[in-house]
């Protein structure tokens, strides 16, 4: 368990494959995009490309939000702030892509053009309704 992430929040982040929203910054403006994620060993893993990746390379400060809804009613949510590190190692990119793809039930090599970003969690809030 991470010192930053309480066990209750870890349980929420690993409970099921949900869509997260990643906030990055481009030219001092926010950029928010949905994506898949994996929580592991006290950090969040994403694989991405395009504007999200360019933004993280330019400014590694990020925020990530995950929320579980049922019939339009919020059940719980987790918001975290942290620092994204772009990992260029091909083996680590492939391994992270496999972990995330398996979590979401797709082929191991789907979206293999993406790059691995490891998000170190600086602070986190969570809630249950």
Short synopsis of the structure:
This protein is α+β, with helices and mostly antiparallel strands and 129 residues long. Helix content is 24%, strand content 48%. The protein has one domain: Roll (Pnp Oxidase, Chain A).
Describe the structure.
The protein is an alpha+beta fold and 129 residues long. It has a single domain, classed as Electron Transport, Fmn-binding Protein, Chain A (Pnp Oxidase, Chain A, Roll), CATH 2.30.110.10. Helix content is 24%, strand content 48%. The protein contains 3 helices and 7 strands, in the order H-E-E-E-E-H-E-E-H-E. Strands 2-1-5-6-7-4-3 form a 7-stranded antiparallel sheet. The longest helix has 14 residues, at 90-103. The protein is globular, with a radius of gyration of 14 Å. The mean pLDDT is 94.
CATH superfamily: Electron Transport, Fmn-binding Protein, Chain A
Tell me the number of strands: 7
Task: Give the DSSP E fraction (strand runs of 2 or more residues).
Answer: over 45%
Low-pLDDT stretches: none
In which range does the helix fraction lie? 10-25%
Q: What is the name of the CATH architecture? A: Roll
Largest sheet properties: 7 strands, antiparallel
Separation of the first and last Cα atoms: 24 Å
Tally the structural domains.
1
Write the layout of secondary structure elements.
Blueprint: H1 7-14, E1 20-26, E2 29-35, E3 38-40, E4 43-48, H2 50-58, E5 61-70, E6 73-87, H3 90-103, E7 115-128
Antiparallel strand pairs: 1-2, 1-5, 3-4, 4-7, 5-6, 6-7
């Amino acid at each position: 368990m991470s010192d930053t992430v309480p066990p209750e929040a870890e349980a929420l982040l690993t409970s099921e494959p949900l869509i997260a929203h990643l906030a990055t910054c481009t030219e001092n403006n926010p950029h928010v995009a949905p994506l898949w994620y994996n929580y592991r060993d006290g950090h969040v893993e994403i694989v991405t490309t395009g504007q999200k990746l360019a933004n993280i390379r330019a400014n590694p400060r990020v925020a990530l939000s995950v929320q579980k809804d049922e019939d339009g009613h919020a059940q719980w949510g987790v918001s975290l702030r942290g620092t994204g590190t772009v990992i260029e190692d091909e083996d680590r990119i492939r391994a992270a892509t496999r972990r995330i793809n398996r979590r979401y039930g797709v082929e191991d090599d789907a979206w293999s053009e993406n790059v691995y970003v490891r998000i170190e969690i600086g602070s986190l809030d969570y809630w249950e309704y």
